[in-house]
Amino acid sequence: MKRQAIVAANWKMNGSLPLIKEMISGLNSVKLAENVNVVVCPSTPFLSAFALNAKNENLQANIHLGAQNVSEHKSGAYTGEVSTDMLNEVFVNYVIVGHSERRSIYKETSTQVAHKVKAVLNAGLTPILCIGESENERTSEQTDTVLASQLQPVIDVIGIEKFIDVVIAYEPVWAIGTGKTASPEMAQATHLFIRQFLANANELIANKVPLLYGGSVNAANCEELFAQTDIDGGLIGGASLKVDEFKIICSSAKGS
Ligand code: 13P
Prior knowledge:
Elements: E1 5-10, H1 17-27, E2 36-41, H2 47-56, E3 63-67, H3 84-89, E4 94-97, H4 100-105, H5 110-122, E5 126-131, H6 135-139, H7 143-158, E6 167-170, H8 184-201, H9 203-206, E7 211-214, H10 222-226, E8 233-236, H11 243-251
Parallel strand pairs: 1-2, 1-8, 2-3, 3-4, 4-5, 5-6, 6-7, 7-8
Helix pairs in contact: 1-2, 5-7, 7-8
């Protein structure tokens, strides 16, 4: 089954204008395998600068701009929020939705996340839907239940057919920013669970959804993770702030 691979950089609340420029010129020389797309998700104030610099530098076409969050509302009195239309205006193509930091710190519910996914799709953008279990949930063998409870509301709100345009990032919360990566075998087993969960609703669609792994991915462990059958790339935090390391991670992704 042919699936595109994606390596996405989630800069979180880090980065700067100089890093935008450095990343664009660094990525312009990276050799990407066929069927691999790269997405850089800087903070909102840097989105326009990325788009402008990417245009000026003639950035290779398979490198895209992503946002880290979006409102589920179309427009109106939502101080501090950003709409899908605004993201479209600054040439954003992807939007991270439901990152565990949004769920835990900002109390986003799976239903709200589902409505964000819907808004993103309605605007013609690609959502990168994040799901993942906490350390407690993993040790008490709740992982599958938690992942199902995060996926089902999205299936209910958008319908399984729309998953053809959705990217899923599995990020075990205990592996984020901790240096504790899931082993390739554990990550593969969980990705397989996710794919099978989707396949229960529609097998054809399930086989086409890119499933990214996130959580302490770096230049040393990316190759082994990306070699797993159901791992179609990664969502990278800390290591995506270092241009040379991020380039290594991007070039180790292989489209299947
Ligand atoms: P780290 O790669 O820093 O663990 O972060 C992962 C992440 O949260 C990406 O969204």
